[in-house]
């Protein structure tokens, strides 16, 4: 009797632990296979399923990256948060020259279709400005918002 209870307890424990170990998050097999092929050395993978895409958050080479896939398993983009020191020098200089009274609240590098773009969110006391890089030559205003007064 004790052996049967112990056996059932072990089976239940193994079954529960494997169900929680699944990090697929409802993502289809095409997507997970494409991800495993592209990022074979990825660690700590966590999935989120959106309406039109799946996002994998993972660590590779000590960096946190985000990979976006469509339902067919096609890689749409890879993004990462970066510091201003990681910007191309021309982009960094342009921000310092033209937005010296703003602080950087967010900076993202997006690799998509063999092209790399940067989005930077800048703020001051009055407004928030989001800029998108146009190559490594400069910035275009993507969005501008005035802050609400409290």
Could you explain the architecture of this structure?
The protein has 150 residues and is of the alpha+beta class. The chain folds into 2 domains: 24-80; 82-150, Nuclear Transport Factor 2, Chain: A. The protein has 3 helices and 8 strands; from the N terminus they run ααββββαββββ. It has helices at 2-21, 29-38, 89-98; strands at 43-49, 54-60, 63-69, 75-81, 103-112, 115-123, 127-133, 139-146. Strand 2 and strand 3 form a beta hairpin. The protein is elongated and about 45 Å long.
Mind sketching the topology for me?
Blueprint: H1 2-21, H2 29-38, E1 43-49, E2 54-60, E3 63-69, E4 75-81, H3 89-98, E5 103-112, E6 115-123, E7 127-133, E8 139-146
Antiparallel strand pairs: 1-2, 2-3, 3-4, 4-5, 5-6, 6-7, 7-8
Brief overview:
This protein has 150 residues and is α+β, with helices and mostly antiparallel strands.
The CATH class of the largest domain is identified as Alpha Beta
Low-pLDDT segments: 1-22
**Average pLDDT level:** 84
Percentage of residues in helical conformation: 25-40%
Strand count, sense and barrel status of the largest sheet are: 8 strands, antiparallel
CATH topology grouping of the largest domain: Nuclear Transport Factor 2, Chain: A
Any idea what the radius of gyration is? 22 Å
Category by helix and strand content: alpha+beta
Level-2 CATH architecture of the largest domain: Roll
Strand order of the largest sheet: 1-2-3-4-5-6-7-8
Number of domains: 2
**Percent range for β-strand residues:** 35-45%
Helical stretch tally: 3
State the total count of DSSP E strands. 8
Helix and strand sequence: HHEEEEHEEEE
Which word captures the global form? Answer: elongated
Distance between the termini: 69 Å
